Amino acid sequence: MEKIILGASGVETSRIGLGTWAIGGWMWGGADEAESIAAIRRAVELGITLIDTAPVYGFGHSEEIVGKALCAGGLRGQVQIATKAGLNWADGKVFRDARPARIRREIEDSLRRLRTEAIDLYQIHWPDLETPIEETARTLGELRREGKIRAIGVSNHSPAQMDAFRAVTPLDTVQPPYNLFEREIERDVLPYAAEAGITVLSYGALCRGLLSGKVTAERVFEGDDLRRYDPKFKPDRRPRYLAAVAALQSLAQARYGKSVLELALRWVLDQGPTIALWGARRPDQLDPVGGVEGWSLDAAAKAEIDAILQACVDQPLAPVFMAPPERRPDGV
Ligand code: NAP
Questions:
Q1: I need a labelling partner for 68 at 20 to 30 A (CA). Which of 18, 185, 312, 322 fits?
Q2: pLDDT for 90-138, tens place per residue?
Q3: For residue 243, what are the contacts with CB-CB under 8 A and spacing of at least 6?
């Protein structure tokens, strides 16, 4: 398994990380606990050492399942846990809150749920525009000095927001959306991170399953599954994305003997100082891990990929539908 050091932290992780949002159930139509635990254990067996979670994923549930799986399996020493802070919720509604007092409470809740003494990577989930970024950054610096966290990251932050953060506390990582269909960070965040020595944790590496090659035009998403309102999965756009997936599948097979899923993850890893976060909630979903390792896309294949994307999806959409609102007007 390929490895990478997170920024200047000295924390080493695998370049494929297990994403555990779906394991929290919330916004993914629910999750099965036994399957979730089996998926986490399978990830570790396959050499994935980075596990990304967040308090908001199931309002504590994802972190609890990660903690339970690692503790019962005696696996804590083999993995690096990445979790987040800076979102709050009331009556099932999520909003941004990266005030120091909120972060101080969140770190204690996360350590308890994750059954650990320290968190390997602690990230601000979304910028809270109503709290000075310097206050948030200062709090994370304190947590590191106190030994509660080892590396510091942000998610969904712009270069200007990272500049403000880094004026107070060094940043090791940034976590933006990044996959073959969502490439907005190539304009700013990716070059910024490469220049500043910041590791990029690319989320949605499979574009919420679209790049798995298993989504069909007929598949219906149930309950609170976010793909019910993801514009890419709507009937007016899904066929175009599926046409791109079919063309990418042919390319992957013809040139490399690979699947589109393997191609999509490899592509993320070939773009720079990146980690691909792969959301899985069943152990069998991780079976293709070995097929992502040990090869690289050449320039001609990358150009062919770009041509396919241009032909099928000429007006790409950023995943802005996922952004949570600012702090509630009542100041909660
Ligand atoms: P993703 O990795 O692009 O897609 C995950 C979904 O793809 C799975 O739930 C599964 O859906 C499907 N899938 C995975 N492996 C498959 C396989 N082998 N065959 C068929 N389908 C497969 O999306 P994501 O989970 O949203 O993103 C990854 C991680 O990034 C998250 O878990 C989270 O840790 C992180 N993230 C962070 C943010 C942020 O704001 N910082 C936002 C989004 C995500 P089904 O089980 O339904 O088939």
A1: 322
A2: 988 999 999 999 999 999 999 999 999 999 999 999 999 999 999 999 9
A3: 312
- Which residues 6+ apart lie within 8 Å of 152 measured at CB? 7, 9, 121, 122, 123, 140, 141, 144, 169, 170, 171, 172, 173
Measured CA to CA, the distance from residue 252 to residue 271 in angstroms comes to 17
Residue found under tokens 């320039």: 299
Residue of 21, 221, 262 to test ligand 1 pocket, by largest number of atoms within 8 Å of CB: 21
Residue to substitute in 40, 180, 219, 285 for testing ligand 1 pocket (most ligand atoms within 8 angstroms of CB) = 285
Ligand 1 mean position to 176 CA, how many Å? Answer: 14
Domains and CATH numbers, the chain: 10-210+266-295 (3.20.20.100)
Is 57 a known active-site residue?
Answer: yes
Q: Which are the contacts of 105, defined by CB distance < 8 A and separation ≥ 6?
A: none
Query: For the stretch 192-216, what's the b/e string if a residue is b when 16 or more beta carbons lie within 10 angstroms of its beta carbon?
Result: bbeebebbbbbbbbbbbbbbbbebe
pTM above 0.90, yes or no: yes
Residue pair 98/105 in contact by the 8 Å Cβ criterion: no
pLDDT digits (tens, 9 = 90+) for 43-74: 999 999 999 999 999 999 999 999 999 999 99
How far is CA 141 from each of CA 69, 100, 138, 158, rounded to the nearest angstrom?
Answer: 29, 11, 5, 20
Picking from 199, 179, 204, the residue whose alpha carbon sits closest to that of residue 309 is: 179
Q: How far is the CA of 303 from the centre of ligand 1 (A)?
A: 26
Task: Tell me the C-alpha distance between 227 and 330, whole Å.
Answer: 30
Residue with tokens 């896309």: 297
